[in-house]
Amino acid sequence: MTSKKQLKIRIRARMAKTGESYTAARRHVVDRPEPRSDGGWTFHGGREPGSAAIAAVLANQGAAISEPLVFLAGGGIGAGYILWEFKHDDSRHLVLGFRNQWQYHDRWMAKTLDRLGLAHAVHTTSGVRGAAARLTGELDAGRPCIVLPDRYHVGYWGLPASLDGHGGHPVVVYRRDGEDVLVDDRGAAPIRVPRARMDAARARVPSYKNVMHVLDPAAAGGLGAERLAAAALEGLHDAAEHLSASSESFSLPAWRKWSRLLVDPRNAKGWPRVFADGRGLAGALLSMWEGVEPVGADGGNLRDLFADALEEAGPLLGLPLAGLAGEFRRIHGLWHGLAEAALPLEVEEFARMRALTARIRESLLAEGAAAGPPDGDGEDGTAGGAPAESGAGPAGRADGADEAGGIDGTGEADEAVAGAAELRELRAAVDRASPVRDQQALFADLSERLAEIHRAETEAAAALRDVLGR
Questions:
Q1: Domain ranges in the chain?
Q2: What is the pLDDT of residues 121-149, one digit of tens each?
């Protein structure tokens, strides 16, 4: 067995055990990992898709700004909970939001770039050809583009057809090569996507309007300490206000609502009623684990990323934020405990699902992939992707799109494909026959944990307001 193979096994094992992102797990296994490059583009990894995309473009333009500060400029953390039920395939989809304005990509991106004072162009159009021509022009001019493809249609996540049209997250397309484009999605290597597939993925969700953000290459030069401090302060005020909102879908009261629904047998959306026969429960618990933990496609609960941002912003602003940073790290631990309780390693089927998720993520992010057309049998599979239309549900399937998304290639790509197929099959099996023996006890435990998280985050938001003098 080669040392490279041993390294991959160790990273995957850590990801499955701890729920850490690929980047974090690799840092624990590899001493001082060197950034990798593809031509003139260097990969820096990252956590939250939007802030990581902005930080990656800036880093490749010569600006030294961390992802946590970009994340803070956008308002930091948020909250959101929606449980969707679909009759057409008797499926349940759990959607969790952990970033400020997680349901509005365009609004979040606009305010983040504006606060950082970064000159940029925003291109939107309902026409596929016009969007494709604009992308070609920008890439040929040497300008990387932040785009928003549908996660199923872009292909490389290996998702099932049931997630067709559920939307996706921002990625950086940094150059084209023949009939393909090369993508940076917080990994350590390029992801090769056929151009026609990327164009279709960008157009899949009508409300996205093929949105594309292009930063002015000269913008990075204006990111001085004064500008960063102003952006950080505005982001802190935004976070304090957003976390104090009353919405039970898009702010902290969402956790209280979810806590109550976990044990309410009378509410139509109560988990005792939705999962009365156990069908679909295992998939929902996997969705919870993937949504809460950094191993997931959206970066996890992000409370530790916010803590990093507070630690950086404190000295920059002369504010006493270290204590709050420590509290949000503790809250991150509470979320980790919730995820562990939902999908414990002691349950054989759950341990295998975690291992397969880590295998797919590590293969994709470590070595990149060649994304091909959807293939597979369309069974329910990995969770991921908030429903499109700003959290209002999937946009519906494209004509003929009734297969599972996958990766077409060799080596790492084939391994990710195999892992995704096995995960789809396993999830379908446990969704039919849940391995959870005592649902009532599980729901009660998760409810108590969420109530504790809600109290802790509400108190932390109040402490943040006090620090800011509000």
A1: 23-467
A2: 999 999 999 999 999 999 999 999 999 99
Q: What does the pLDDT average to over 403-413? A: 42
56-to-170, 274, 298, 347, 361 alpha-carbon distances in Å: 12, 41, 16, 38, 19
Name the amino acid, one letter, at 418.
Answer: A
At the topology level, CATH places domain 23-467 in Cathepsin B; Chain A (3.90.70)
- The label of the residue with tokens 């997630």 reads 163
Helix (H) or strand (E) holding 78: strand 77-86
Which are the contacts of 134, defined by CB distance < 8 A and separation ≥ 6? Answer: 123, 125, 212
Number of residues assigned to the chain? 470
The model's pLDDT over 74-117, given as tens digits with 9 standing for 90+, comes to: 999 999 999 988 776 677 889 999 999 999 999 999 999 999 99
Tell me the C-alpha distance between 345 and 285, whole Å. 13
Strands, E assignment, 135-226: 145-147, 171-177, 180-184, 191-194, 212-215
Q: Transcribe 40-66 into DSSP letters.
A: TEE----SSHHHHHHHHHHHHTT----
CB crowding 411-422: b at 16 or more within 10 Å, else e: ebbebbbbbbbb
Could you tell me which of 8, 52, 2 has the C-alpha nearest to residue 30? 8
C-alpha distances in angstroms, 389 versus 96, 165, 221, 238, 412?
15, 9, 35, 23, 33
Buried b (16+ CB within 10 A) or exposed e, 188-220: bbbbbbbbebbbbbbbbbeebbbbbbbbebebb
d(CA 58, CA 170): 15
In sequence order, which residues have a C-beta less than 8 Å from that of residue 319 and are 6 or more positions away? 313, 467, 468
Question: In this structure, are residues 131 and 199 in contact, taking their beta carbons and an 8 Å threshold?
Answer: yes
Structure tokens at 170: 């921002």
- What is the dihedral angle through the alpha carbons of 42, 48, 49, 53, rounded to the nearest 10 degrees? -40
Structure tokens at 31: 């001493």
